[in-house]
Design brief:
Trna Endonuclease, Chain: A, domain 1; 2 domains; two-stranded antiparallel ribbon; 46% strand
Length: 340
């Protein structure tokens, strides 16, 4: 596989939503790296989630390593990606397992990513079922032959953190506030209507915040206009969204006394969402940790390259990933993602 001599054009990153508190696990970081690369490969109109939880055909939750939906048609995931970070190649049995997950979740498209490769039988079955196979592996080529040849990076970072989310819902004839605090708010799911107009599809609260708040033209000034580059989170006035015709729903297990409903959990409409958000601006410096290539496992085409940095600040880990992709006629695109 030949490296390409390219000229890069920077591009704003597509929507990417990372949840979960187990980034310290190597297998989880591999899933996140795949989600980052795929978010750039799919473009701006696709939202990418890692991880994602959906309900299968019998209503049980199914965990997906990575899932994608169309930004302007958010009622159904159209693709999921399963990531296999093991010491051996992916075999036919695992491909069959992924096929079963696709049938149970009714998601039509899927990909499988391996860090070690695929057996011949796995490739044959995947080709028959039109499942794309990808490889993610460490690039050990000499640094001066790599597109990102520096040893360190300096980042001027703007961050937001949702400290608290209050959902105003109506149960029977009474309004009630449901409160989620940081970090649990990152796991909170709201429901949207599926194609049968049933509220069954889960969307993270943070994705709603990104769509309804961060996409506004005044978001930058509203959240960062009053703070300094001092590395500390600063509180902002609450941001409230109201819905005359509810488009989000939430599953409620207990009544206001903490007792399970006699008739089982209820799905109720969300009439308002109030976000309590902190912002900070910080300067970071970090040494390069690893470089990766993302390759089509069948054609061996190089699809993307990424450079991985880790920042340790006050005993917490923060990560930055630079991605180069879209290789064509000696040109390419690049982008960057920061997360914690």
């Amino acid at each position: 596989m030949n490296k390409l001599a390219v000229t890069a054009f920077a591009e704003e990153k597509p929507n990417l939503f990372i949840s979960g508190n187990d980034q310290e696990q190597d297998w989880r970081m591999t899933e996140i790296l795949v989600a980052i690369v795929e978010s750039f490969l799919q473009g701006k109109d696709i939202d990418t989630f890692s991880s994602a939880e959906v309900l299968d055909i019998v209503g049980d939750p199914e965990q997906l390593d990575v899932a994608q939906l169309h930004r302007f048609d958010p009622n159904q995931y159209f693709r999921f990606i399963e990531v296999r970070d093991r010491s051996s190649k992916v075999g036919r049995n695992y491909v069959q397992e992924v096929m079963g997950k696709g049938r149970s979740t009714r998601i039509q498209e899927c990909k499988i990513v391996s860090t070690k490769g695929f057996t011949r039988n796995a490739k044959r079955l995947a080709a028959h079922e039109r499942i794309d196979l990808r490889l993610l592996f460490l690039d050990n080529s000499p640094r001066d032959q790599y597109w990102f040849s520096t040893n360190s990076t300096i980042l001027h970072l703007k961050q937001t953190r949702v400290d608290r989310c209050i959902l105003r819902v109506k149960i029977d004839n009474d309004y009630e506030d449901l409160v989620s605090e940081f970090p649990e708010v990152s796991e909170k799911l709201l429901l949207v209507l599926d194609n049968d107009l049933s509220p069954t599809l889960g969307v993270p609260v943070l994705a709603i915040f990104e769509k309804e708040v961060m996409s506004r033209e005044d978001a930058e000034n509203r959240l960062f206009g009053h703070i300094a580059f001092d590395g500390h989170f600063h509180g902002n006035p609450p941001i409230t969204l109201t819905f005359d015709s509810p488009c989000y729903f939430v599953r409620v297990e207990l009544d206001r006394s903490g007792i399970p409903f006699a008739d089982g959990p209820r799905v109720v409409p969300v009439h308002a969402i109030r976000f309590f958000v902190s912002s900070r601006m910080t300067v970071f410096t970090s040494q390069i940790k690893a470089r990766y290539d993302y390759v089509d496992a069948i054609s061996e085409e190089l699809l993307a390259q990424c450079v991985f940095f880790e920042f340790r600040i006050k005993e917490r880990s923060y990560y930055q990933v630079f991605v180069q992709y879209g290789f064509k006629d000696g040109f390419c695109k690049d982008g960057c993602v920061f997360f914690e």
